[in-house]
Amino acid sequence: MKNGIFSDYKIFTGNAHKELAEEIASIMGKPLGMIEVSRFSDGEISVGQLEMVRGLDCYIVQSTCSPVNDNLMELLIMIDAMKRASAGRINVVMPYYGYARQDRKVKARDPITAKLVANIIVAAGAERVVSMDLHAAQIQGYFDIPVDHLLGAGALADYYVRKHENHDMMVAVSPDAGSANRTRYFAEYLDIPIAIGDKRRTVQNDCEIIGMIGEVKDKKCIIFDDVIDTGGTIVKTAEVLMELGAAEVSTACTHGVFSGMAVEKLQNSCLSEVVLLDTIPLSREQAAIAPKLVQLSVSDLFAEAIERIYGDRSLSALFDKRHLRGVDFAR
Questions:
Q1: Cα(260)–Cα(237) distance, integer angstroms
Q2: Three-class DSSP labels, 258-310
Q3: Residues sharing a CB contact under 8 Å with residue 291, sequence separation 6 or more, in sequence order
Q4: If we measure between CA atoms, which residue out of 327, 297, 331 comes closest to residue 161?
Q5: What is the pTM of this model?
Q6: Vertex 66: Cα angle to 329 and 305 (nearest 5)
Q7: Which of 26, 63, 101, 321 has a CA positioned 20 to 30 A from the CA of residue 301?
Q8: CA 200 to the chain's CA centroid
Q9: Between the CA of residue 182 and those of 81, 132, 315, what are the distances in Å?
Q10: Catalytic residue numbers?
């Protein structure tokens, strides 16, 4: 019994990404907790048959990916069900936090939806949030509860360490100035330089790359970003890099949102490879038509985070390069 209060913990999931939740639970030597998440005939979400959680630590693994609103509502109702069943602590594990890109007012009278969603999650009864690569770091402050913010850079960099012995000709590329800090963090794992694109957004979900700061000629360029949505930014950045004489261009990202024809766009581009983490599930259709896609598992990382949270241990080691070398991201 931990601290004489919480005698055990259980892991639950909704319908967003059952495969990842099952992997996490398996690593921790536990079956997924029993909970039924279904729909009424009019589309309303129903949560029932929740097993006993009284006094226990509960971890709900649920990315708020597409269909975003359905998955968010599932999460909120599961939190409420556990609160009403007297769970000891309710911890939300959101590998991907939807609405994160609406994190500030871009123009007058814009909502700040990332803050609204944080308020709703807290009001529902969550007591901790664990997420990965929030689009903006300040989103951690939108919550009035503890937030553990895991970073995907180590997992992605580890793939390139295993694949390439020589990093001398490699450059990490940020598609815009806003992603420069996370790209620099990724580059530090590989001890390689960075280049930064000068991006100008023309309309929503469309942009133009008008320049590149840094040396990319004859280099193996890795475009690093947190999210690939429509694929427009990544593809246009890759085209600019090839025009500037890059030897090869690949991309590494944490969250593969892949809206619309994104997968087809990436497959038909000059990119040699698209490496991503499994915070969002790939559909069978997406996986079948895109042999360029390489998806790495973050189940080990989240499993260890949960174990450390439950045991009141520091998560700092999860950001250490030496520690990440021992984590099996290729699961």
A1: 19
A2: CCCCHHHHHHCCCCCCEEEECCCCCCHHHHHHCCCEEEECCHHHHHHHHHHHH
A3: 267
A4: 327
A5: 0.91
A6: 35
A7: 101
A8: 25
A9: 37, 12, 19
A10: 199
Residue with tokens 């009278």: 109
Distances (CA, A) of 190 to 83, 159, 172, 253, 293: 44, 10, 9, 15, 21
Q: How far is Cα 276 from Cα 172, in angstroms, rounded to an integer?
A: 15
326 C-beta neighbours (distance < 10 Å), count: 8
Residue 110 φ/ψ, nearest 5 degrees: -75, 145
Per-residue pLDDT band for 3 (boundaries 50, 70, 90) equals very low
DSSP percent split of the chain into helix, strand, coil, nearest 5: 35, 25, 40
210, 188 Cβ separation under 8 angstroms: no
**CB-side neighbour CA atoms (13 Å) of 308:** 15
292, 235 in Cβ contact below 8 A?
no
With a cut of 60, say whether residue 311 has pLDDT above it: yes
The answer to whether residues 236 and 249 touch, using CB atoms and an 8 Å cutoff, is no
For helices 180-190 and 153-163, what crossing angle results, to 10°?
A: 40
Q: Are 257 and 280 in contact (CB under 8 A)?
A: yes
What distance in Å separates the CA atoms of residue 181 and residue 187, rounded to the nearest whole number? Answer: 10
What beta strand segments (E) does the chain contain? 9-13, 36-39, 45-48, 57-61, 89-94, 128-132, 147-150, 170-174, 194-203, 206-213, 220-228, 248-256, 274-277, 293-296
Q: Check pLDDT > 60 for residue 40.
A: yes
